[in-house]
Amino acid sequence: MKPLRFDGAKILTVGDAMLDRYWHGETTRISAEAPIPVIDVKEIEDRLGGAANVALNISTLGAKSYLVAAVGKDSMARELRAKLEASSVEAELIEQPDKSTTTKIRLVSRNQQLVRADFEEYSGISSETLGNAVSKFDEADIVILSDYDKGLLEDPQPLIGKYVAEKKPILVDPKHKDFSVYRGATIIKPNLSELEHAVGGWGSESELLKKVRILLDKMSWSAMLITRASDGMTLIEAGDESHFPAKARSVYDTSGAGDTVISVLAASLSSGYTLKDSVAFSNVAAGIVVSHFGVTSVSGPELSAEVSSGDSYIKGVMSAEQLVTAVRYSKSLGERIVFTNGCFDILHAGHVDYLEEAKKEGDVLIVGINADESVARMKGEGRPINTAERRMKILSSLEAVDWVVIFEEDTPESIIEMISPDVLVKGGDYSVDQIVGADLVKAYGGKVKVLSFVEDCSTSAMVEKIRKL
């Protein structure tokens, strides 16, 4: 894949900027005044936060970044201005002498946040003032509304109306409020909590999709991108949906991950990439930033290298419904789908060899695993040794495995029916007539294959040997 290029993009971010301040130090004793740790502060670090972090992310990617935000007349505002200027962000900061700049102070010891203190005031800005500020950046080709509910975007309708008339895409990062205030925008990016606040709960993925599509039609949005933390992202359009699982990583801090998502999404769309590719790049970028401490950004070369590595955005754990969507899209690209299943209770060398061999049968390898209750029914008391969550995490980290899905029944027949894999495989201790779903796959012209058998690599035998020790 060619290196990603964002240097032609011009993006305006309008929203609630803030200063993220970190007090770093060591904790070696407990206070005599109260049962709390005492931090010996050695370093104070300031970073751009909120809408300012969105603008920073855009600039770091190599795109042209503009920002409109409200600040107070204080030292925090001066620090914000200096950092924005140093980051090549062109900013119009609306100064409010009677307000203070939103500041979040985090006390940190050994890369762990111990406490956070927020200093903020509601910053109501008139539509006329805001309109005058944003008009200075009419050369922008995409607009982000970064709403942290601090007052700047109390009524975004005049802004949305302006950019709809100019035929400029409007991307919204919303807060816990009535989503009707964002009516007419192009794409809205809530997390699960924000979405639930807007539409109420749901009992299944299909009910979620139904509620979102009703909202898309009612609010005249083109798409909704739902961020789902460790479960990745789901893109929902009027007639289509795609799920992007999160890449397995060590997560240090999720601060600012949502800012990164919408920044990369906007920069990618502005640079001519498709919506699905843009979401995929955003998903990769979010994975990068959560593996660092504190609010941070991802550079264009860093993102490009990660995407080009081949270990991209398709790997991870999915629900059955998400898997159906992913498989449909994968097949539309002409990719060959391979499916296998098992308990995978204690992952061993035999499993790894078997999965690597299975992957060679196609382009995408899906592994179905039995739920804990199913393993217990089949294997007896004391099994599984590892929970389904642990087993899925280990499997999804293997290079050969693309998607992992869990099934509650004793067999994966319902999963096989749902996804219709091109190739169904099992290990060499089975014969074709013993493989669940074989008749189904052969009926529509799919391939069923028994792979080689690896001696002395039975999980049950290992468990029994350990019990005898």
Structural features, described:
With 469 residues, the chain is α/β, with parallel strands linked by helices. It has 2 domains: 304 residues, Ribokinase (UDP-N-acetylmuramoyl-L-alanine:D-glutamate ligase, 3-Layer(aba) Sandwich); 151 residues, Rossmann fold, CATH 3.40.50. The protein has 16 helices and 19 strands. The strands form 3 sheets. A 9-stranded mixed beta sheet has the order 5-4-1-8-9-10-11-12-13, sandwiched between helices. Helix 1 packs across helix 7 and helix 7 packs antiparallel against helix 8.
How are the elements arranged and paired?
Blueprint: E1 10-15, E2 17-30, E3 37-50, H1 51-61, E4 64-72, H2 75-86, E5 89-96, E6 103-109, E7 112-119, H3 127-134, E8 142-146, H4 157-165, E9 170-173, E10 187-188, H5 192-199, H6 205-219, E11 223-227, E12 233-237, E13 240-244, H7 257-270, H8 275-290, H9 300-308, E14 316-318, H10 320-332, E15 337-342, H11 349-359, E16 364-370, H12 372-379, H13 388-396, E17 403-407, H14 413-419, E18 423-426, H15 438-443, E19 447-450, H16 459-467
Parallel strand pairs: 1-4, 1-8, 2-6, 4-5, 8-9, 9-10, 10-11, 14-17, 15-16, 15-18, 16-17, 18-19
Antiparallel strand pairs: 2-3, 6-7, 11-12, 12-13
Helix pairs in contact: 1-7, 7-8
